Amino acid sequence: MKILLTSFYDSKFFLKVIRGERFRAGEYCPQLALYQLAGVLREEGHDVSVLDPAVQELSFPEIRQDLEKTEGRFYTEESISRINALVEGTRYVTLLNRVGGFDMVGFSANSFNWVAVLQQIRQVKEAFPDMPVVLGGVHPTFALNHLLAREPVDFVVRGEGEKTLLELVRAVEGKIPLVSVRGISYRKNGIRHNEDRPLMDENALSALPLPAIDLIPKGKYLWLPLETSRGCLHTCRFCSILYHNKWRGISPDAFQKRLIQINEHVDHLATDELMPGLVYVVDDTFSTHPVRCTSVLRRMKEIGIRELSLRVEARIADLIDSPILDLLAELPTQIVQASVDAGSDEGLRRIRKKIRMRDVMTLARKAEKTETAGKLNIPFIIGYPWDGYDECMRTVQLAYELTVRYGLSCNLNWFLLMPGSDIWEHRADYALDFQEDFFDGFGIRSYETLRRVSRGLKEPERLRIIKALEFYQSVILTTGIGGGIKDSELY
Ligand code: B12
Ligand code: SF4
C-alpha cells in the first residue's frame, strides 16, 4: 500500500509567521513517530513517504501583523482570534498536491500541534473525501471521542502505533477484519473502540526496525531524535505521556544499532555556527533503571556521537546515587533536563512528584562539586490551580537560588492543562471548565486562559509573579549563569 505520513509544528510556528520572523526548522526536532512508523511500514514492503513539516509549502491568508499582549506578555483574546484566523486560513499546498496519489494518509499529533494538524485533515478530506485518514499520537489517544465525533477522521490509533498501524493497513487492504485490529477506534454506526493492544515488551521494542532516519529532509534540522526507552514508572499529576507506570528500555545492543544509524546520518543536519547539532534522546525518563542507563551511556562513550552534542531527560532521584551524571559529564552533553515542577515539599506531594526538596538540594550540591551544574536544566511549573501567591513565589525563589548559588539553569513554565493528565481527569474538582475543543484553537497562550487555570491567584498577584519571572530571566541573561536560558515563550 502507498502511505503518506505527516504532521505539523506547534502554534509557535504561526506566531513566527505573524511576527514576520524567519522560521528556522533548526529550532525543532524531526518528529520521531513519523520516521519510526515509516521504518516499520517500509520493512513490511509498503511504499511509505514522510511529508515533513520542514518541506511543506504553505499559503497564508492576509492578516494584520500586530498582536497585542497584556502587561504580562500573554496574548489578548483579540490577538488569539487573529492567530486562529491565520491557522484556519493556511493552505497546506504540498500536502494537497501530493496526497492524491496515496492509498492512506496518517497524521501524528500532540495537543500543541493539533491546532494545525486538524486543519490539514479537514483540507485533505475536503479535497479527497474517500482518502482513508488515520490519526495517532498523544492528543488523538486522549481526545479520541471528541475527534471521532466531530472531525473527518476514519481511524484513531491509540497509544503505541507500530504494530497497530501495520494491522490497520492490512484491514484497509481487506486482508483481515477491522474488528480484529487491537488498539484502534473508528466510526461505524457510532464510535467503536476495539480492544486495547498490550504494550510491546522490551524485546519487541528492541527488535523494532530502525526508524527511517534517511527520510529526514537534508539541511533542515539541527537535532536528530533517538529513542532508548518508553514510558515512566511515575504518575506526576500534570503529565500527559502515553505510558505512565510502565517503562521499557531497549537493550544496549539495540541502542548501539540506533546510535550508529544516527552517526551515519549527521550529514542530514543543517549547519549553524551558533548551535551545534544535537542528539535528542526523546525518552520520557532516560535515567530509569540506572544500571541500564549507565551501560547505554558507556556504549555511547565507546561509539561516540561525532561532532554532535547530547540532550537527555532524567529524574533527579536517579542522578543522586548513580554514576549517570559523571558519565554524562564525560560525553559532549549539552543539557540534562531534570524536572522538579514545584517549589516546596507540599507542592511536590500535591503533584505526586515522588521527590523531596532535600533531593533537589543534594543534586545541586553534587552538580556543583562535579562541575556539571552548567549542563543541568531544571524545569519548574507555577500556577497550578491550587497554587497561591506564596507557593508561586517560593518556586521562583528556588529557581533563583539554584541558579545564582549553584549555577544550574531553570525553566519557569506556567501550568498547562493537558488532556491525559490526572489534573485534566479531575479538572471539575478545581472548577476548570475546559473541554477537548479547547485544543482545536490557539487559546492556550491567552491571558484569559491563565486567569481561568491559575485560579488560586488574584489579579495583581498574577502580574507580580510575571514580573518576578521576568526578573529571573534577566538575571540569567545578563549573568549567563546556567548557559543563559531561552525565553520560555509561554508568557
Ligand atoms: C521530544 C519531545 C519534545 C521535543 C521535540 C518535539 C518533537 N518535534 O517531536 C520538544 C523539546 C521540541 C518538545 C516541546 C514541547 N513538548 Co514535548 N515531548 C517530547 C517527548 C519527550 C518525546 C516525543 C517523541 O518523539 N516520542 C517518541 C515517539 C516514537 O513516540 P510518539 O510520538 O508518542 O509516537 C508513538 C505513538 O504516539 C504513535 N503515533 C504517533 N503519531 C502517530 C501517527 C500515526 C498515523 C499513528 C498510526 C501512530 C502514531 O505511534 C508512535 C510509535 O509508537 C514527549 C514525551 C514522549 N515520550 O512521547 C513530550 C511531549 C510530547 N511534549 C509535551 C509538551 C507539553 C511539550 C511542550 C508544550 C513543553 C513546553 N512546556 O513548552 C513543548 C511544545 C510541544 C510541541 N512543540 O509540539 C507533552 C505533550 C502532551 C500532550 N497532551 O500533547 C509530552 C507528551 C510530554 C509530557 N510530559 O506530557 N517536546
Ligand atoms: S513528569 Fe516525568 S517523572 Fe513525572 S510522570 Fe511525567 S515523565 Fe514521569
In short:
The chain is 39% helix and 15% strand.
Task: Explain what this protein looks like in three dimensions.
The structure is a single chain. This protein has 491 residues and is α/β, with parallel strands linked by helices. It folds into two domains: 2-159 and 161-193, Rossmann fold (3-Layer(aba) Sandwich); 225-487, pyruvate-formate lyase- activating enzyme. The protein contains 19 helices and 17 strands. It has helices spanning 12-19, 32-43, 77-89, 93-98, 114-127, 138-142, 144-150, 162-172, 202-206, 252-264, 290-303, 316-320, 324-330, 345-351, 357-369, 389-406, 422-425, 447-453, 459-479, and strands at residues 2-6, 47-51, 58-59, 91-92, 104-108, 133-136, 155-157, 184-187, 191-193, 223-226, 229-232, 246-249, 278-281, 309-313, 333-337, 376-382, 409-414. A seven-stranded mixed sheet has the order 2-1-5-6-7-8-9, sandwiched between helices. α2 (32-43) packs across α8 (162-172) and α10 runs parallel beside α11 (290-303). The longest helix has 21 residues, at 459-479. The chain starts with a strand and ends in a 12-residue tail after the last helix. The model is unreliable at 482-491 (pLDDT under 50). The structure holds cobalamin and iron/sulfur cluster. Cobalamin (B12) is lined by residues 10, 28-29, 31-33, 36-37, 106-108, 110-113, 134, 136-139, 157, 160-162, 165, 225, 227, 239-242, 282, 284, 413, 418-420. Iron/sulfur cluster is lined by residues 232, 234-236, 239, 241, 244, 284-285, 315, 339.
